[in-house]
Write a structure and sequence with these properties.
The structure holds two protein chains of two kinds.
Chain A (H helix, E strand, L loop, with lengths): L1 H9 L2 H4 L7 H40 L1 E4 L3 E5 L3 H7 L2 H33 L5 H13 L2 H11 L6 H8 L11 H29 L3 H9 L4 H12 L1 H16 L3 H5 L15 H11 L3 H27 L4 H22 L1
Antiparallel strand pairs in A: 1-2
Chain B lengths: L1 H16 L2 H16 L6 E8 L5 H10 L3 E8 L2 H14 L6 E5 L3 H6 L18 H6 L9 E14 H6 L6 H9 L5 H14 L9 H9 L18 H12 L12 H6 L7 E5 L2 H8 L6 E4 L8 E8 L7 H11 L2 H11 L2 E2 L2 H5 L1 H4 L11 H10 L11 H18 L4 H15 L1
Parallel strand pairs in B: 1-2, 1-3
Antiparallel strand pairs in B: 3-7, 4-5, 4-6, 4-7, 4-8
Helix pairs in contact in B: 10-11, 19-20
Classes of the chains: A mainly alpha, B alpha+beta.
Chain lengths: 342, 429
């Protein structure tokens, strides 16, 4: 396009011609070129503004007011809700639990998903069967998963403690101790999401050109070497996607801890109360939407921080492409230093 | 929700399709219909929770009223139902035509009385015990809800385990045993100590918090000041707390409704439970196949009421008159007796309570105990109905957790757990 336009604009005759009346049609045409692409993509942004941005801003508005669930808006209180929430030990317990459950679920989950995907990518018999199989846990409703797992993890009558008992291991307090409860909840999350992430990785793996592997095989690289030198670097964009989405999901975790016992409040000493559970408690049990909204915003900020952090970390995953880029950057930096020295 | 929207669209289509005159007519028609039940086909929705024993009754009502279709939305727990209730009330839409509510939600219903239809009518005057009606009546005398059932408490016990521990085991002697020395809570715990001393490791009751429920239900205003509604703990709450935790050796250390609690019914987990009438169905369900359960017609410290529900008709309802008639029918004596027979929900109706049919009811699972008669006496013994304000739910939850930290988790001692509880209560206010 650009090369075509340039000569017309520069051509002398057009300037000598009497100024042409620009017809409405032509204006429309120009608008069409300029505006249409934005219109085509606008449904997403309009939808986002309605269901994403508006609630976000409105939550911010609620968070600086006294706001009862049933009574509605009260006085403007500034950041009082935030300072109240930050002063509550329960908030910090929730933060600790959320981060701990997030780490216990996301890290093993991504690693396991990668390994499963690599196995599914190999030449298997009945490929589709295995591939659909890993998605099966994802189809099970989270509430059902939580019910089954909470039966398994019951402190006295649970299956897992019974098995441990047979092995001569003391029963673990899955509900009374902090870390075991986090492990139990993380296992529910992993059960549900590992297969889903594995399929995403698998799709990305299938897109890697096969000749890369052929060349590597010819060069005598082992399967493991190929996995680390070709598969992982080529998966980088997908990994960023998976890690960011699992960060968002992991920090918002709600269903599993809520269903982990009958009361749904995260344990008697809040052993497994996550931030979303705390938010729910403030908003719906204590009917204070203002404080709940403040928690929502704090959670939002936390997710942003973690998403950025993870993005930075995943970018470091080695790739040839990346190495040339850093090399270029380094060269540029040296040149710049030389220039400034002069 | 979806239904109303569709109906609205249909109405809108009608408006544009026909002429203005026609719409004016249809509008007034609708008004006439709702005041006098007619042949117009309507759908009524009702939402309940746990088990109200209504399934057969709803079918019966539809047969009696062929123009009415009833949709039943059943929540698993009252907590779930309450969450949906609050959200829908706040949103101004989403409530059923007839909404079952628990007595503990009454404060917010009274607070938003204008969102509920006044249910006063000639057919229901004098229907219920005064104290139940009072729970559902505003200060201006508006009746906001029809009581469906109450929860008079008795003691359910395992006769076989009592006998094995050398205690009397038949209904009458157990009643006498619990009523020795004035029959208050001290005697209850004393019987417990005697039992545990001879029971070969079988705990006495299921959990300290469950027993605490029975004790708290005998305080006039456990957590809040009835006049101001502000949080003010009755000093007796701490006494109850201390008594319970001094006696944790009687407890099987189970949290009620928890997985371990449910399973404990199958392996002699404990010998005694405080049982409001509706608990009988729960025990029977969990203890299927276990023999030896019985009920003693007694309760420490007099009587007690645990729970009880109501039916309301929110102003959100499109068919308030029909909904009111439906709720009226459901809470009439005959229907309450049928519900009692299916689930053990004890009638809140005076007429039903006095009926010979009720007096003759027995329960096979509980060694053919005359449950009708027992719970009738128990309901007459109810003398205190605690005040429950806006913060009752939250404070009660915090207290449960404080007790369970010591009794169930055993991760805390009584004093530190109480301190944590006090912090939590401060955060609620």
């Amino acid at each position: 396009m650009a090369t075509q336009l340039a000569p017309t604009r520069g051509a002398a005759p057009s300037r000598q011609r009497p100024p042409r009346k620009i017809g409405f049609r032509q204006t429309l045409g120009r608008w069409d070129v300029k505006v249409s692409p934005y219109l085509y993509i606008s449904p997403f942004f309009i939808l986002f503004a309605i269901v994403g941005l508006f609630p976000l801003l409105y939550t911010g508005y609620v968070s600086v007011h006294e706001w009862s669930l049933l009574g509605g808006k009260g006085d403007y209180v500034g950041f009082e809700n935030f300072s109240f929430v930050l002063g509550q030990p329960n908030f910090w317990t929730g933060l600790r639990n959320t981060l701990s459950i997030f780490l216990l679920s996301s890290v093993p989950q991504v690693i396991a998903a990668l390994i499963i995907a690599a196995m599914l990518d190999a030449n298997l018999r009945a490929k589709t069967f295995w591939r659909m199989g890993v998605l099966l846990p994802y189809v099970v409703a989270p509430v059902a998963v939580a019910l089954v797992f909470s039966k398994m993890f019951a402190d006295e009558s649970g299956m897992i403690n019974a098995v441990l008992g047979n092995l001569g291991i003391d029963p673990i307090g899955w509900h009374k101790d902090v870390l075991p409860s986090h492990i139990a909840i993380a296992s529910m999350v992993n059960f549900r999401w590992t297969g889903y992430n594995a399929l995403i990785f698998l799709a990305a793996m299938q897109a890697i050109p096969r000749d890369l592997y052929e060349a590597a095989t010819l060069d005598g690289a082992s399967r493991v070497r190929q996995f680390f030198a070709i598969t992982i670097p080529m998966l980088r964009p997908t990994m960023i996607f998976v890690i960011i989405t699992s960060t968002i999901g992991g920090l918002q975790i709600y269903d599993e801890p809520r269903m982990y016992d009958q009361l749904g409040q995260g344990g008697n000493s809040r052993q497994w109360m996550t931030i979303t559970l705390y938010l729910y408690e403030l908003g719906w049990r204590q009917r204070d939407l203002g404080r709940a909204a403040a928690v929502a915003w704090l959670l939002f900020l936390l997710i942003i921080i973690f998403a950025i952090l993870n993005f930075a970390i995943t970018r470091r995953i080695s790739s040839a492409d990346d190495m040339t880029r850093t090399a270029k950057k380094a060269r540029k930096a040296i040149k710049a230093r030389e220039r400034s020295a002069r | 929700m979806r239904k109303t929207t569709r109906k609205m669209w249909a109405a809108a289509a009608g408006v544009t399709g026909i002429a203005l005159v026609a719409t004016a007519c249809s509008g007034s028609d609708a008004g006439d219909d709702s005041s006098a039940p007619s042949d117009e086909k309507i759908t009524l929705t009702i939402s309940t929770f746990n088990e109200f024993g209504y399934d057969d009754l709803l079918d019966e009502y539809m047969q009696l009223n062929p123009n009415i279709t009833i949709e039943h939305n059943k929540f698993a727990t009252s907590n779930e139902a309450r969450d949906q209730f609050s959200t829908a009330l706040a949103a101004g839409s989403g409530l059923a035509d007839v909404v079952a509510v628990e007595v503990d939600w009454m404060p917010e219903i009274k607070q938003y009385a204008d969102q509920f239809n006044d249910l006063t009518s000639d057919s229901v005057t004098g229907r219920w015990n005064d104290w139940t009606t009072k729970q559902a009546t505003t200060e201006d005398g508006v009746l906001l809800a029809y009581p469906t059932d109450i929860g008079p408490e008795a003691i359910a016990y395992r006769a076989d385990l009592f006998a094995a521990a050398g205690l009397p085991s038949d209904r009458e002697s157990v009643k006498a045993l619990f009523e020795e020395n004035g029959g208050d809570w001290d005697q209850f715990f004393k019987v417990g100590q005697d039992f545990v001393a001879a029971s070969n490791g079988v705990p006495f009751f299921d959990g300290a918090d469950a027993v605490g429920q029975g004790m708290l239900n005998q305080l006039d205003a456990p957590f809040e000041n009835p006049d101001t509604g502000e949080i003010a703990l009755d000093p007796q709450v701490q006494e109850i707390y201390n008594t319970l935790l001094e006696n944790t050796n009687l407890s099987s250390h189970k949290a009620q409704w928890g997985e371990d609690w449910v399973n404990a019914f199958q392996n002699n987990g404990f010998a005694v439970m405080l049982a409001p009438s509706w608990m009988l169905g729960v025990i029977e369900g969990n203890a299927a196949g276990v023999t030896g359960w019985d009920i003693a017609d007694t309760f420490p410290g007099g009587g007690g009421n645990w729970g009880g529900s109501f039916l309301t008709v929110p102003t959100q309802s499109e068919h308030p008159e029909e909904a009111k008639a439906f709720a009226d029918w459901l809470t009439a004596p005959e229907q309450q007796l049928k519900a009692f027979a299916t689930t053990g929900n004890f009638p809140s109706q005076v007429e039903a309570q006095a009926s010979t049919e009720l007096a003759g009811m027995t329960n096979e699972f509980f060694n053919n105990a005359p449950t009708g008669e027992i719970f009738k006496t128990r309901s007459e013994a109810i003398s205190v109905i605690p005040f429950k304000g806006e913060n009752y739910f939250a404070v009660r939850d915090a207290l449960s957790q404080a007790i369970n930290r010591v009794d169930v988790d055993q991760t805390d001692d009584a004093a530190t757990s109480w301190a944590t509880f006090e912090e939590a209560v401060k955060a609620i206010g």
